[in-house]
Design goal:
Number of helices: 10
CATH architecture of the largest domain: 2-Layer Sandwich
Number of domains: 2
CATH topology of the largest domain: Dihydrodipicolinate Reductase, domain 2
Distance between the termini: 38 Å
Shape: globular
Strand content: 25-35%
Structural class: alpha/beta
Radius of gyration: 21 Å
Protein backbone atom coordinates (compact mmCIF):
# COMPACT_ATOMS: atom_id res chain seq x y z
CA UNK A 1 0.00 0.00 0.00
CA UNK A 2 1.41 3.36 -1.04
CA UNK A 3 0.99 6.19 1.44
CA UNK A 4 0.39 9.58 -0.14
CA UNK A 5 3.14 12.11 0.42
CA UNK A 6 2.44 14.82 2.97
CA UNK A 7 1.93 18.18 1.32
CA UNK A 8 3.64 20.87 3.38
CA UNK A 9 3.52 24.65 3.03
CA UNK A 10 6.39 26.91 4.11
CA UNK A 11 5.75 30.51 5.12
CA UNK A 12 8.91 32.64 5.13
CA UNK A 13 12.12 32.33 3.11
CA UNK A 14 14.60 34.20 5.27
CA UNK A 15 17.73 32.52 6.59
CA UNK A 16 15.83 30.04 8.77
CA UNK A 17 13.13 29.57 6.16
CA UNK A 18 15.73 28.59 3.58
CA UNK A 19 17.04 25.96 5.99
CA UNK A 20 13.52 24.56 6.33
CA UNK A 21 13.21 24.64 2.54
CA UNK A 22 16.41 22.60 2.17
CA UNK A 23 15.42 19.99 4.76
CA UNK A 24 11.77 19.66 3.72
CA UNK A 25 12.82 19.20 0.10
CA UNK A 26 15.00 16.25 1.11
CA UNK A 27 12.56 14.26 3.27
CA UNK A 28 11.03 11.08 1.90
CA UNK A 29 7.25 10.99 1.81
CA UNK A 30 7.03 14.79 1.77
CA UNK A 31 6.08 17.19 -1.01
CA UNK A 32 6.91 20.84 -0.50
CA UNK A 33 3.66 21.94 -2.13
CA UNK A 34 3.69 25.68 -1.45
CA UNK A 35 6.05 28.43 -0.35
CA UNK A 36 5.32 32.04 0.52
CA UNK A 37 7.37 35.19 0.92
CA UNK A 38 6.82 38.84 -0.08
CA UNK A 39 10.36 39.06 -1.49
CA UNK A 40 10.01 38.23 -5.18
CA UNK A 41 13.61 37.10 -5.71
CA UNK A 42 13.51 34.67 -2.79
CA UNK A 43 10.13 33.34 -3.87
CA UNK A 44 11.22 32.78 -7.48
CA UNK A 45 14.39 30.98 -6.38
CA UNK A 46 12.40 28.67 -4.11
CA UNK A 47 9.71 27.81 -6.66
CA UNK A 48 12.27 27.24 -9.40
CA UNK A 49 14.27 24.90 -7.16
CA UNK A 50 11.34 22.88 -5.79
CA UNK A 51 8.41 23.22 -8.16
CA UNK A 52 6.26 24.41 -5.26
CA UNK A 53 3.39 26.80 -5.80
CA UNK A 54 4.45 30.33 -4.88
CA UNK A 55 2.53 32.94 -2.91
CA UNK A 56 3.60 36.51 -2.19
CA UNK A 57 1.22 36.59 0.80
CA UNK A 58 1.77 33.83 3.41
CA UNK A 59 -1.80 34.19 4.65
CA UNK A 60 -3.05 33.50 1.12
CA UNK A 61 -0.92 30.36 1.03
CA UNK A 62 -2.41 29.11 4.30
CA UNK A 63 -5.93 29.86 3.06
CA UNK A 64 -5.71 28.57 -0.51
CA UNK A 65 -2.88 26.05 -0.98
CA UNK A 66 -3.63 22.31 -1.02
CA UNK A 67 -1.51 21.36 1.99
CA UNK A 68 -1.61 19.05 5.01
CA UNK A 69 0.62 21.07 7.36
CA UNK A 70 2.38 24.42 7.64
CA UNK A 71 5.85 25.48 8.72
CA UNK A 72 5.99 29.13 9.79
CA UNK A 73 9.43 30.73 9.46
CA UNK A 74 8.19 34.28 8.91
CA UNK A 75 9.22 37.21 11.16
CA UNK A 76 8.05 36.92 14.76
CA UNK A 77 5.33 39.55 14.44
CA UNK A 78 3.64 37.41 11.75
CA UNK A 79 3.53 34.22 13.82
CA UNK A 80 0.19 34.80 15.52
CA UNK A 81 -1.96 35.56 12.44
CA UNK A 82 -0.36 32.77 10.42
CA UNK A 83 -0.65 30.19 13.20
CA UNK A 84 -4.27 31.10 13.91
CA UNK A 85 -5.12 30.88 10.20
CA UNK A 86 -3.52 27.43 9.95
CA UNK A 87 -5.28 26.19 13.09
CA UNK A 88 -8.61 27.45 11.75
CA UNK A 89 -8.07 25.27 8.67
CA UNK A 90 -7.16 22.30 10.89
CA UNK A 91 -3.56 22.27 9.69
CA UNK A 92 -0.84 21.08 12.10
CA UNK A 93 1.71 23.86 12.43
CA UNK A 94 5.41 24.10 13.21
CA UNK A 95 6.14 27.66 14.35
CA UNK A 96 9.75 28.77 14.40
CA UNK A 97 10.81 30.06 17.78
CA UNK A 98 9.83 32.28 19.40
CA UNK A 99 6.22 31.15 19.33
CA UNK A 100 5.14 34.80 19.49
CA UNK A 101 6.42 38.21 20.46
CA UNK A 102 4.21 38.52 23.57
CA UNK A 103 2.56 36.27 26.13
CA UNK A 104 -0.89 37.39 25.00
CA UNK A 105 -0.19 36.38 21.39
CA UNK A 106 1.22 33.06 22.53
CA UNK A 107 -1.78 32.38 24.75
CA UNK A 108 -4.13 32.91 21.80
CA UNK A 109 -2.17 30.45 19.64
CA UNK A 110 -2.07 27.77 22.35
CA UNK A 111 -5.74 28.23 23.22
CA UNK A 112 -6.79 28.02 19.56
CA UNK A 113 -4.78 24.83 19.05
CA UNK A 114 -6.33 23.21 22.11
CA UNK A 115 -9.88 24.16 21.12
CA UNK A 116 -9.42 22.83 17.59
CA UNK A 117 -7.39 19.77 18.59
CA UNK A 118 -4.65 20.89 16.17
CA UNK A 119 -1.03 20.14 17.14
CA UNK A 120 1.30 23.13 17.49
CA UNK A 121 5.04 22.46 17.57
CA UNK A 122 7.57 25.21 18.30
CA UNK A 123 11.00 25.31 16.68
CA UNK A 124 13.25 25.20 19.72
CA UNK A 125 15.78 23.34 17.62
CA UNK A 126 18.38 22.95 20.37
CA UNK A 127 16.16 20.32 22.00
CA UNK A 128 17.03 18.13 19.01
CA UNK A 129 20.77 18.68 19.18
CA UNK A 130 22.21 15.17 19.69
CA UNK A 131 24.47 16.41 22.50
CA UNK A 132 21.42 17.86 24.28
CA UNK A 133 19.47 14.64 23.75
CA UNK A 134 22.33 12.67 25.30
CA UNK A 135 22.62 15.14 28.18
CA UNK A 136 18.92 14.71 28.90
CA UNK A 137 19.28 10.93 28.88
CA UNK A 138 22.19 11.04 31.34
CA UNK A 139 20.34 13.46 33.60
CA UNK A 140 17.38 11.06 33.69
CA UNK A 141 19.80 8.24 34.54
CA UNK A 142 20.88 10.20 37.61
CA UNK A 143 24.36 11.43 36.68
CA UNK A 144 23.27 14.64 38.41
CA UNK A 145 20.58 14.12 41.02
CA UNK A 146 20.91 17.42 42.88
CA UNK A 147 21.06 20.34 40.45
CA UNK A 148 22.86 23.49 41.59
CA UNK A 149 22.97 25.67 38.48
CA UNK A 150 22.52 25.82 34.72
CA UNK A 151 24.35 28.53 32.74
CA UNK A 152 24.03 29.21 29.03
CA UNK A 153 25.98 31.46 26.69
CA UNK A 154 24.61 32.27 23.24
CA UNK A 155 26.59 34.99 21.54
CA UNK A 156 27.61 36.11 18.08
CA UNK A 157 27.73 38.98 15.59
CA UNK A 158 24.68 41.14 14.91
CA UNK A 159 22.28 39.55 12.37
CA UNK A 160 20.99 42.28 10.08
CA UNK A 161 17.83 40.21 9.46
CA UNK A 162 16.43 40.76 12.97
CA UNK A 163 14.54 44.03 13.29
CA UNK A 164 11.20 43.26 14.93
CA UNK A 165 12.42 41.95 18.32
CA UNK A 166 15.54 42.16 20.47
CA UNK A 167 18.04 39.52 21.45
CA UNK A 168 16.00 38.40 24.48
CA UNK A 169 12.98 37.24 22.49
CA UNK A 170 14.95 36.13 19.44
CA UNK A 171 17.82 34.23 21.10
CA UNK A 172 17.04 34.20 24.82
CA UNK A 173 13.91 32.10 24.28
CA UNK A 174 16.20 29.22 23.22
CA UNK A 175 17.87 29.31 26.62
CA UNK A 176 14.73 30.01 28.63
CA UNK A 177 13.34 26.79 27.20
CA UNK A 178 16.57 24.84 27.61
CA UNK A 179 17.17 25.82 31.24
CA UNK A 180 13.59 24.98 32.19
CA UNK A 181 13.83 21.63 30.40
CA UNK A 182 17.06 20.70 32.18
CA UNK A 183 15.77 21.82 35.58
CA UNK A 184 12.51 19.98 34.99
CA UNK A 185 10.56 22.95 36.34
CA UNK A 186 9.63 26.55 35.56
CA UNK A 187 11.32 29.55 37.21
CA UNK A 188 9.38 31.45 39.85
CA UNK A 189 11.54 34.59 39.92
CA UNK A 190 13.74 36.29 37.30
CA UNK A 191 16.04 39.30 37.09
CA UNK A 192 17.96 40.81 34.19
CA UNK A 193 20.27 43.54 32.94
CA UNK A 194 20.10 44.71 29.32
CA UNK A 195 22.13 46.90 26.98
CA UNK A 196 21.50 48.40 23.56
CA UNK A 197 24.78 49.06 21.77
CA UNK A 198 24.31 48.73 18.01
CA UNK A 199 20.68 47.70 17.43
CA UNK A 200 18.57 50.66 16.34
CA UNK A 201 15.47 49.86 18.37
CA UNK A 202 15.96 46.86 20.70
CA UNK A 203 18.37 45.43 23.26
CA UNK A 204 21.30 43.44 21.90
CA UNK A 205 22.70 42.13 25.20
CA UNK A 206 21.03 40.30 28.09
CA UNK A 207 22.29 38.87 31.35
CA UNK A 208 19.40 37.05 33.02
CA UNK A 209 19.04 35.16 36.31
CA UNK A 210 16.36 32.54 36.96
CA UNK A 211 15.34 31.07 40.32
CA UNK A 212 13.70 27.63 40.26
CA UNK A 213 11.42 26.18 42.98
CA UNK A 214 13.99 23.49 43.84
CA UNK A 215 16.55 26.18 44.65
CA UNK A 216 18.54 25.72 41.44
CA UNK A 217 19.77 28.87 39.71
CA UNK A 218 19.84 29.58 35.98
CA UNK A 219 21.92 32.16 34.12
CA UNK A 220 21.36 33.33 30.54
CA UNK A 221 24.05 35.29 28.69
CA UNK A 222 22.96 36.28 25.16
CA UNK A 223 24.18 39.02 22.85
CA UNK A 224 24.61 40.17 19.27
CA UNK A 225 27.92 41.87 20.04
CA UNK A 226 30.45 39.03 20.13
CA UNK A 227 32.59 38.85 16.96
CA UNK A 228 32.64 35.02 16.96
CA UNK A 229 29.67 32.69 17.39
CA UNK A 230 29.51 30.88 20.73
CA UNK A 231 26.86 28.40 21.92
CA UNK A 232 27.67 26.81 25.29
CA UNK A 233 25.93 25.24 28.27
CA UNK A 234 27.22 24.29 31.74
CA UNK A 235 25.19 22.16 34.16
CA UNK A 236 26.52 21.89 37.72
CA UNK A 237 25.25 19.61 40.45
CA UNK A 238 26.32 17.76 43.54
CA UNK A 239 27.67 14.85 41.52
CA UNK A 240 29.63 16.84 38.94
CA UNK A 241 29.43 19.08 35.89
CA UNK A 242 28.32 18.72 32.28
CA UNK A 243 29.81 21.04 29.65
CA UNK A 244 28.18 21.17 26.24
CA UNK A 245 29.04 22.97 23.01
CA UNK A 246 25.99 23.19 20.76
CA UNK A 247 28.05 23.97 17.65
CA UNK A 248 30.58 21.13 17.88
CA UNK A 249 28.07 18.82 19.64
CA UNK A 250 30.75 18.02 22.22
CA UNK A 251 29.63 16.87 25.68
CA UNK A 252 31.84 16.21 28.69
CA UNK A 253 31.18 15.27 32.31
CA UNK A 254 33.55 16.16 35.13
CA UNK A 255 32.94 14.15 38.27
CA UNK A 256 32.96 16.05 41.55
CA UNK A 257 36.44 15.80 43.07
CA UNK A 258 37.14 14.47 46.54
CA UNK A 259 40.93 14.06 46.40
CA UNK A 260 43.68 16.45 47.36
CA UNK A 261 44.05 19.51 45.11
CA UNK A 262 46.59 19.91 42.35
CA UNK A 263 48.38 23.24 42.16
CA UNK A 264 48.11 25.54 39.16
CA UNK A 265 51.39 27.36 38.49
CA UNK A 266 52.69 25.88 41.74
CA UNK A 267 50.44 27.79 44.10
CA UNK A 268 46.74 27.96 43.07
CA UNK A 269 44.83 24.95 44.46
CA UNK A 270 42.49 23.23 42.02
CA UNK A 271 40.34 20.25 42.95
CA UNK A 272 40.06 18.23 39.74
CA UNK A 273 37.58 15.47 39.07
CA UNK A 274 37.78 12.81 36.41
CA UNK A 275 36.71 14.15 33.00
CA UNK A 276 34.77 11.89 30.65
CA UNK A 277 34.18 12.65 26.97
CA UNK A 278 30.62 11.52 26.25
CA UNK A 279 30.23 9.90 22.80
CA UNK A 280 27.70 11.78 20.66
CA UNK A 281 26.71 10.78 17.13
CA UNK A 282 26.73 14.06 15.22
CA UNK A 283 23.63 14.99 13.23
CA UNK A 284 21.69 18.06 12.11
CA UNK A 285 19.15 19.12 14.76
CA UNK A 286 16.79 20.72 12.24
CA UNK A 287 16.36 17.41 10.43
CA UNK A 288 15.38 15.71 13.69
CA UNK A 289 13.00 18.57 14.54
CA UNK A 290 11.22 18.41 11.18
CA UNK A 291 11.04 14.60 11.27
CA UNK A 292 9.44 14.83 14.72
CA UNK A 293 6.86 17.29 13.35
CA UNK A 294 6.11 15.07 10.35
CA UNK A 295 5.52 12.11 12.71
CA UNK A 296 2.99 14.19 14.63
CA UNK A 297 1.25 15.16 11.38
CA UNK A 298 1.05 11.51 10.29
CA UNK A 299 0.37 9.80 13.62
CA UNK A 300 -1.01 12.49 15.94
CA UNK A 301 0.08 12.89 19.55
CA UNK A 302 1.77 15.68 21.45
CA UNK A 303 4.73 17.38 19.77
CA UNK A 304 8.03 16.97 21.66
CA UNK A 305 8.24 20.76 21.97
CA UNK A 306 4.66 21.94 21.99
CA UNK A 307 2.87 25.26 22.13
CA UNK A 308 2.94 25.36 25.92
CA UNK A 309 6.72 24.96 25.93
CA UNK A 310 7.01 27.80 23.43
CA UNK A 311 4.62 29.95 25.45
CA UNK A 312 6.66 29.48 28.61
CA UNK A 313 9.83 30.51 26.80
CA UNK A 314 8.12 33.71 25.63
CA UNK A 315 6.77 34.34 29.15
CA UNK A 316 10.23 33.97 30.68
CA UNK A 317 11.79 36.23 28.05
CA UNK A 318 9.18 38.92 28.55
CA UNK A 319 9.56 38.70 32.33
CA UNK A 320 13.31 39.21 31.92
CA UNK A 321 12.62 42.33 29.84
CA UNK A 322 10.21 43.60 32.51
CA UNK A 323 12.72 42.92 35.29
CA UNK A 324 15.38 44.92 33.46
CA UNK A 325 12.99 47.80 32.73
CA UNK A 326 11.76 48.00 36.33
CA UNK A 327 15.21 47.30 37.82
CA UNK A 328 14.02 44.69 40.28
CA UNK A 329 13.30 40.94 40.25
CA UNK A 330 9.98 39.86 38.77
CA UNK A 331 7.93 37.29 40.65
CA UNK A 332 6.35 34.96 38.09
CA UNK A 333 3.74 33.53 40.47
CA UNK A 334 0.86 35.59 39.03
CA UNK A 335 1.98 34.81 35.51
CA UNK A 336 2.23 31.12 36.30
CA UNK A 337 -1.46 31.11 37.24
CA UNK A 338 -2.32 32.33 33.70
CA UNK A 339 -0.20 29.83 31.84
CA UNK A 340 -0.87 26.17 31.14
CA UNK A 341 0.97 23.65 33.28
CA UNK A 342 3.20 21.32 31.27
Amino acid sequence: MTVAALRVGLAGLGSMGRNHLRVLSSREGVTLAAVADPMADALTAATDATGAQGFADPLAMVADAEIDAVVIAAPTMAHEPLALAAIERGLPVLVEKPLAATVEEGLRIVAAGKRAGVPVQVGHVERFNPAVVELGRLMREGWIRTLYSVASRRAGPFPARIRDVGVTVDLGTHDADMLSWIAGERPTRVYAELAQRIHTSHEDLLFGLLHFPSGATGMIDVNWLTPAKRRQLVVVGEEGMFELDYLTQRLTFTRAATDKPELIAGYAPNFVGDVAEIPVASSEPLVAEIDAFLRVVREGGRPPVDGEDGLWAVAIANSLLLAAAERHPVDMTDLISRLPVA
